[in-house]
Amino acid sequence: MHVADAPPHLRILRLLRDEGPVSRAELGDRLELTRPRLLAEVERLVAAGLIAEAGMAASRGGRRSTLVELHPRLRFAAIDLGASSIDIEVTNGRLEPVATYREVSDIRSGPRVILHRVNDLLAKARTDGAFDRLDAVGIGVPGPVSFRDGVPVSPPIMPGWDRYPVREFLAREHGCPAVVDNDVNIMAIGERHGGVAHSVDDFLFVKIGTGIGCGIHLSGTVYRGVDGCAGDIGHIQVDANGPVCSCGNTGCLEALFSGAALARDALAVARSGESPALAERLAGYQAAARRAAESEGLSADDEALEERVTITARDVADGAAEGDVTCIRLIREGGRRVGGVLATLVSFSNPSMIVIGGGLAQLGHVLLAEIRSVVYRRSLPLATGNLPVVLSELGSRAGVTGAAVLASDTAFEQAS
């Protein structure tokens, strides 16, 4: 729903969420509501426990108006599930975090294991005094989602999650509304709310992590497509002869450049010695693994070590910073592939900004420069003359920020 088309109560609540306490008089001016209509809406929201009085406003030359704010009791749970992590924030009505939890997990453990762990962490937050009750829960998952139904749909890296009733489960467990979206969409929403795209209505948010996806923000809102899978650019084919992807097709962007693909390629050049920096790191990791195995009385043979040791994107980033030409080449090759896909999207949708986020954003300006170069070279000048391509400002908090925005909107919409 576009902001201008939203009902008055929703516009009031969003304004107080985004800007803090506002006087009744200013609310009327900002939202262009008649005084009787405004007072009726405010009193209804006060009675519903959503807003509260917050003292007197500064004088505007006559009788002083009363400030109103979102009720200090309001609490939202924001959850960002990654392929290998759980991030949770409990926020107040202004979406300021009052409790934060992050831990390593494996999305392949299945919905029962992961969601029960989410419940355990929220129970801990409640015990720690972060909330008495939740007003809404927002969650992002790393796969396609039917936004209408609140369920993941055939997610390639989430075995066991297909059609699992995530929204229903969370709403039942916590006695409040819940909303489920794709992780890239919630990152785009978060970046629009509090990041580098704060004043931009039309932009692309590209997450480059374990997978690759694109949040499409058009005319001030996320575009999800008819069935909720818009922006799944990781499965656009870029090389017909490329490796098999997790989706079953060959040569997808994600199969050629993502967290898993980069780790695979980095390990290969470390083992071959093509990258001295990565070879040195691999030898160090193997030595550490050997010592750990011996101390635990486990096998320390080379074959067992090879299965336990890997190279990460962080290693590649560090190697590139040290001037290792192979690390720089790996990053640039990935940037060229991503840039080629984005150039097509720029020609198609003509966005005002492209934001790069996700775990591989840590590859920094080598990656960013390559993406920019390809996008600017392969797109029409009219589409790129005023097109910034930038790194996410929120970083790892983009997802939980967007989940909190979705949760609050869901709670506010149901206050009608």
Quick summary:
Helices cover 44% and strands 18% of the residues.
Give a structural overview.
This is Sugar kinase. Belongs to the ROK (NagC/XylR) family. GO terms for molecular function: kinase activity. Keywords: Kinase, Transferase. This protein has about 425 residues and is an alpha/beta fold. It folds into 3 domains: about 70 residues, Winged helix-like DNA-binding domain superfamily/Winged helix DNA-binding domain (Arc Repressor Mutant, subunit A, Orthogonal Bundle), CATH 1.10.10.10; about 130 residues, ATPase, nucleotide binding domain (Nucleotidyltransferase, domain 5); about 120 residues, Nucleotidyltransferase, domain 5. Strands 6-5-4-7-10 form a 5-stranded mixed beta sheet. A 5-stranded mixed beta sheet has the order 13-12-11-14-15, with helices on both faces. A 3-stranded antiparallel beta sheet has the order 1-3-2. It is globular and about 75 Å long. The two termini are about 15 Å apart. The model has no long low-confidence stretch (mean pLDDT about 90).
